[in-house]
Amino acid sequence: MLQEIVDSKTDSSVLSFFLSAPARSFSVTEVAKRLSVPYLKTAHSLNKLAAVGPVASFSKKGKKYYILNRHYKLLPEMKNYWNQSGPKYEDELFSAIKHLGDIKAAFLSGVFTGQPNLPVDLLLVGKVNLNKLSDFLKIVAKMMGQEINYSVMTVDEFLLRRDTFDKFIKDIFDYPHLDVVDTLSKK
After folding, report:
1. How many domains does the chain have?
2. Which of 91, 131, 136, 184 is the most exposed place for a label (fewest CB within 10 A)?
């Protein structure tokens, strides 16, 4: 079955995308757009990859998301091969987050990391431009197929809550999360 995926241009493109992209979840819409592949072909390919195992899927509010399966037995070999021979993928989401203001820390959690039951998908720490944030959230909602849960904190509030083991902050760091920006971990 894996040979069948490698032989299919769409399947191999989708798998290559997941191997080179940050380890976050993506909607069918986002993958189709980023790869310039029709939506139905992308959906079919993602379902096939999820059935074989290198990609896992989950749902939130009726919307399906896909993420690289960390537990897939061939994943280390696949990633090693890809890291040596394949191009890297620059995540536009990460770049956009960094331009929302004077961001000292930004963490992706929840739906972005395959944990749809967590209370927050995006935590921003620092001075955020609210107009840019509003535009960003509209784009991300369209890309993800639903609104994301987010929180904005000042540096002082974040540090206090982190250092007092606040449940909200603990829920982010006790589960898989992605550090988009983190200038505060040493404080």
Report:
1. 2
2. 131
